[in-house]
Amino acid sequence: MRPHCLRFTPAGRRRLAGLNAEYRDNSLLTRPQSLVAIHVVAVLFGATGIFGAVIEANAAVITWGRAVFAVLTLVLVGGALGERGFKQVFAQAHGWALFGSGAMLALHWVSFFISVKLGGIAVATLGFASFPAFITLIEWGILRERIQRVEWVRLFVVSLGLLLITPSFDLHDIATEGLLWGLLSGASFGVLAVMNRRVLSGVNAFHVAGLQNVVVCVLLTPWVFSELRTVSVNDWYLIAALGVICTGVAHLLFVSSLRCLPARTAGLVVASEPLYAIGFAWILFAEVPSARTLVGAVMMVGAIFSASLAVHRAKH
């Protein structure tokens, strides 16, 4: 029987003494609240593309600002919640892994926002949603892990879905260029996910997120420094909202929910992010997806749901 989520009380501490460390951490949320929180996370992640579309600053500036406000949020909220020991992270993890994963995060965000500006929210989000396919290819081609036949089938379905959502096969088509940037966003996120799982899995996720965002800031500062003074006040408000709500708060909710929910359950819900993004674009910007795009989206999201659900069932 899976242990119930408990509040951090003396009685709770006694009952949790013999349980897995995942359930010994201080929990901010009950299990029902965690389920609600993870759905909120999916919505916030889906809204990221909206900010990329309405902010007039370039992709590098958006990413830099997002990381800055995310770091401030994580530090302030983490301090209030008793999250300490950022310095100890370097003793637990290789410095190159933190730097490399931060670099992948920067590339992921910059390429995603470029994709939004070139191809639109739906194309960018679906391009990014290809990241499970890149994870499969990395684990098979580089890490030499055995890939089951059903996983190759899912990879094929995702690839076919990508072909369907491709606006055209003309590389001079700006929308197609946007999809390619979206695929780069998915590929870099796939590398980031593998690094987090293989190298940083034993490190406090809250601390890793904060330090990865610091790396993003450091790497992009030389590229954006001369442009920061040209950013409008309205854009700064939007960038702050993106960094605080869609990054800092979203990550806090994600980490908190994982203390009561299996990671695979959370992943199953977050896989619905493209659906929220397409819905937002449809309602707010009248970006009505074509029938072919919808079919491709259903195939891709269906494959992602299938993979998450299969692993989730295997855990029970």
Write a brief structural summary.
This protein is 74% helix and 0% strand.
Name the helicity range.
Answer: over 70%
| Order of helix and strand elements from N to C terminus | HHHHHHHHHHHHHH
Kindly state the number of beta strands. 0
Coarse structural class: mainly alpha
Q: What is the multimeric organization of the chains shown?
A: single chain
Based on CA inertia axes, which overall geometry fits? globular
Name the average pLDDT. Answer: 78
Helical segment count: 14
Radius of gyration from the CA trace?
A: 20 Å
Strand content: under 5%
Low-confidence stretches: 1-26
Q: First CA to last CA: what distance?
A: 9 Å
Question: Could you describe the 3D structure shown?
Answer:
The chain is mostly helical and 316 residues long. It has one domain (29-314). Helices cover 74% and strands 0% of the residues. The protein contains 14 helices and no strands. The radius of gyration is 20 Å and the shape is globular.
SSE blueprint:
Blueprint: H1 10-16, H2 31-54, H3 59-80, H4 89-92, H5 95-119, H6 121-128, H7 131-141, H8 149-165, H9 174-198, H10 205-224, H11 233-258, H12 263-270, H13 273-285, H14 291-314
Descriptive key words:
316 residues; mainly alpha; 14 helices; globular; disordered N terminus; membrane
